[in-house]
Predict the 3D structure of the following.
Amino acid sequence: MKARQRRRGTEQWILRLYVAGNTARGSKALRNLEAVCEEHLSGRYRIEVVDLLKQPQLARGDQIVALPTLVRRLPPPMKKIIGDLSNQERLLVGLDLRRGEPRGQGSA
Amino acid sequence: MRRRQTHQRLPKTATGITGFDEVTSGGLPKGRPTLICGGPGCGKTLFSLSFLMYGADHGEPGVFVAFEETGDDLIKNVRSLGYDLEAFVKRKKIAIEYIRIERAEIEETGEYDLEALFIRLNEAIKATGAKRVVIDSVETLFAGLSDTGVLRSELRRLFVWLKERGITAIITGEKGIQTLTRQGLEEYVSDCVIALDHRVSDQVSTRRLRIVKYRGSSHGTNEYPFLIDEDGIVVLPITSLQLVHNASMERISTGLPWLDQMFGGKGWFRGSSILISGTAGTAKTTIASHFLDTTCRRGERALLFQFEESPAQYLRNMRSTGLHLEGWARRGQLKVHAARPTLYGLEFHLATMHREVLKHNPTVVVVDPISSFTGGTFDEVNGMLMRLIDFLKERKITSLFTHLIPGGGGNAEDSKIGVSSLMDTWIILRNTPPGHNGGRQLAILKSRGMSHSAELRAFELTNRGTVSV
């Protein structure tokens, strides 16, 4: 358990948040995401915000339909979480960050 | 009156689907969404693709939003039907936007909308200059995302969005248990709703297209059979059975001089319908073949629907009676279309015949024999023949039908064939009773609008032809 946590602790996280323009929902999602990252991944995460109004062609690659959508690009496997991320518990589950979370493939 | 005029002016977008544009007076409502619904395998995707490809071929590029198949799968699946979708994609006339939603991969937290779907659709429309859009099938969204309230309002927004852009769209939906579509999409589409149906009973397959709703149009008969074959989709227009055909005064030869003589020396009317009944082995097919032969000799085109033999077997058998039809077949003047009558339903046969007639453009059509159609009730067979004869008469095509009377030499006139009333001319053949000349006898039971012989004419089949004795 300890070994795993240590390994997890050095992982680099790349999170991509898809939004469309400057919407209240998009800003809220970003705020919620940043709060969770600061708490759980401090110093080892990067958030890329993709505005599909400016880069519409990027929606295809990650199969984005709903907005906002958060994609965990690293570590694998890829995860998708849609919505304004206002439910922190579900966000943690979605990112495999919930403490004692049994699904640990992400750290392999 | 005024109402009718507005209906006439309602702009339409052609689908290019044979028969469909006819029954809808021009196709789908232009610049509006149409809902096409039905069970699995009913032909929704194919219908939509036909619409898109026809548009792409006629200056209206399109976008296919595929929720169920990848672009590659789609291209592969329709290739077997002769659709070269790939060529359109390469020329940027059609864009396929594959959208995959896997519930297991998605976590939902908080509010969202489907703006990215709009952005992707908009990109694809811009890239092709699309005037047509197909969304197949939007209900997949409901399986992938859980907030049905959001999905419903977003779909409503999508339909309005398409309308605002003047795009003629097809939205497909899966048949529900009590409703037309699982998610009740019919509530959102007010202009045109079409239901497709594929039934198999007694190993007979029947496809039907029903126009559930069509703004500004009235539909007396709104259910039409259709078929899918190697040429795509063809919808069978059910003619109104109005007796408005122009009756031709022109007479054409039966192909047998002695038979022409029995019709006042001039043969029968062009564009009329002829029935030849007889028990087994009374030379029905041979007499019909003389008619085909003489038609080709005049330089016209003839079409034979042969339901008992393969084309090769038929041509060989006719050779033994002195008729060499291979040359006409080679030159493309004679087309022999063979099919097993029991494999398909009546509607399928009728649709096939329509298609072949439109393709081959003959002046004479022979169906040999109509008695093979046991797949339906008496009324159904009768109805089918009525529609076929009507269709042929409209095109001034002379039609000849053979009919096998069952049993050994029973009284022909007593046969229960009801179609005789549909026929202009009715000829009976029978084997000659012992002690008479010739092998067979022929009598004209009726022939509308012309004088004809009332005698019983004996004739014989020889290897130099069918001769009167």
Notes: The mean pLDDT of chain B is 86. The interface with chain A takes residues 97, 99-101, 105-117, 119-120, 122-123, 141, 144-145 of chain B (CB under 8 Å). The longest strand of chain B covers residues 204-214.
